[in-house]
Amino acid sequence: MTALTAPPETPARAALGPARLRVALRVLPALLLTALALAGPWLAPHAIDAPVVAPYAEAGGEAPLGGDQLGRDVLSRVLAGGRELVVTSLLVAVLVTAIAAVLGAVSALRPALGRIVERTADVLMLLPAVLGILLVTLSWPDGGRLAVVTASVVLGVPYAVRLVAGAAAPVAASGYVEAAAVGGERLGHLVVREVLPNLRATLLALFGLRFVAAVYLVATAGFLQVGPQPPAADWALMIRENSAGIVLNPWSVLAPSVAIGLLALSVNLAAAALVPPSGRKAVTAL
Amino acid sequence: MAGTLTGGEPAAASGPRPVPAAVRTALYAAGVVARRLLLLAVLLAAVFAAVELLPGDAATATSERGETAADLAARRRLLGLDRPVAERFWDWMTGLPTGDLGTSARGEPVAGLLAHPFPNTLLLGGLALLVTLVVSVALGCWAAARPGGGIDRTVSASATGILALPEFVVAVALVLVFALWTDWLPAVTLTDADGSPASWRMLVLPVLALAVPQIGWNTRIVRAALADEAKAPHIETAVLDGLPRHRILTHHLLPGALPTVAAGIATSTGMLLGGAVVVETIFNYPGIGSVLAGAVTDRDSPVIAGVVAVTGAVITGVLLLADLVRAWASGGRT
């Protein structure tokens, strides 16, 4: 019924002007912070698991941000505590985007699958993501990081598929895809060669949004003590462990909080900048 | 599609025949309720499957070092884990409507564990939902009053900024500012004899910590829904008729945006109940968060399954309300 003749996303390519520069500027903080979190463990001046000062010692001297509950250097632990969060979140975001890209394109080509995904998303709406993570990690005590990743991916995929399927629908209905289908191309070819290449901008935006959601979920799992286990340095776990000493050394809680807050803000800023202008409302499908 | 084309006709014809319209409404409502209940049942079946299929069960999770295989088998029998899967599935699904949420790994009924904390969590989540609704509608309207203006840009940018913040980060900031540095509000919830918060002041910070990210989320939704609605022809007519700005907002824009706003708020319910678990831990609030913290230590999967079942039922209720608001706002056109 809706035979769109215009290819969806070409104009952004030619324009290398101020709009692109603005997107780059808004993505930059997230890239810098992610790089810092990844390189952090190498920059830490002290070991993360050996006491340097007195428990909850005030900032200064050996420990610029003071000591934590066991007197370990807060600065070193903050530098070291972001890598696992960032790596796990990136892994979740990549997996969700890749799975959703394929399933979303197939859903647009085969509406029966689309309806199943819709119903799955309706069911998962009844399951708060935080409780879903707890359900999987408690039912699978030896799962470790794999359990957190699995739960985050399962909980994220249906919404992401919905978003991709919505963006893929006009492409799937276009003349060249119909021609390829009539020409006898198989489903795999249609998905990979005909539909997905036209959804690059959507998939990039989706990746950004899923990274935002993954940082939230993985950090919350860490805070609820179902993620990294002591003595590992992890921003969310540090907040939980040191909350008793917030009066003695506020930095032991404030520093990891600022780190998570900045990561969430900058990644969100980047994701919002990556969303194509026509698809702004899709943000609500996070 | 066909409905919108012939939309004027049945509306005109339904006037002299009130009874069939009422029947149709009742049938529609029954259909919505049945659909929501079916989705809830599917979720509960999926929860059982997840607990069942993932490696490890409640008996091994709570086992202590040096325990023999016989001890383990005995506890399995005690927890009913030795019975056939089909039988346990039947018990789980038929027990839930009667309030039986299963047995924890320590052998206590889960419903009993949740009886006192869950109402406290509902109070916290309900208040946060109310604050979210009021503040995000107010901010959304304020921003929509002058599209593209300074207020609009500030509100939209801050809303986008805060929506991704984890609740515990917001909570730490609130505790530092309002409890430690200014000493205006308590950072810890004290309970009175019956286990509920002793004073309303102890609810302020937990409610704010929960509501702030959701306010960011819903302000964006309200703002976008109002922008969509503003493009409708009847709004243009109202503007050309010279109606006052606030009257257009309250009588023309908001009613049209209502279904979208209701759906957004309903979606937030799940986020609020999930976030409550986190926020309660920080403020020592006597809700399901403390029960779940114990469940994490024990790796107690039946407890989390029970909590998921109850929250699923609450969210189903809120989504039903949103369905009905949508049906009412659209005047039976859907």
UniProtKB/TrEMBL annotation, chain A:
Question: Record's family?
Answer: Belongs to the binding-protein-dependent transport system permease family.
Q: Where is the ABC transmembrane type-1 domain?
A: 86-271
Q: Where in the cell is it found?
A: Cell membrane
CDD domains tied to this protein = TM_PBP2
Looking at the UniProt entry, the stretches that span the membrane are 23-44, 85-109, 121-140, 203-224, 253-275
What are the record keywords, sorted? Cell membrane, Membrane, Transmembrane, Transmembrane helix, Transport
Q: Does the keyword Nucleotide-binding apply?
A: no
Question: Which GO terms fall under biological process for this protein?
Answer: transmembrane transport
Which PROSITE patterns does the UniProt entry name for this protein? ABC_TM1
GO terms for CC?
plasma membrane
Q: What is this protein called?
A: ABC transporter permease
Entry keyword annotation includes Transmembrane helix? yes
Which Pfam families would you find in this protein's record?
BPD_transp_1
Chief location of this protein?
membrane
Bilayer topology reads: Multi-pass membrane protein
TrEMBL record, chain B:
**Top-rank taxon:** Bacteria
Determine if Transmembrane helix is one of this entry's keywords.
yes
Please state where this protein is localized.
Answer: Cell membrane
Query: Which Gene Ontology terms of cellular component type are present?
Result: plasma membrane
InterPro entries (alphabetical) = BPD_transp_1_N, MetI-like, MetI-like_sf
Q: Name one GO biological process term.
A: transmembrane transport
Q: Residue ranges of the ABC transmembrane type-1 domain?
A: 118-326
Protein's UniProt keywords contain Transport? yes
Q: How does it sit in the membrane?
A: Multi-pass membrane protein
Enumerate the PROSITE patterns for this protein.
ABC_TM1
Q: What is its main location?
A: membrane
The entry's keywords: Cell membrane, Membrane, Transmembrane, Transmembrane helix, Transport
Q: Where are the transmembrane segments?
A: 37-55, 122-145, 157-180, 200-217, 253-283, 303-325
Q: Which family does it belong to?
A: Belongs to the binding-protein-dependent transport system permease family.
Protein name in the entry: ABC transporter permease
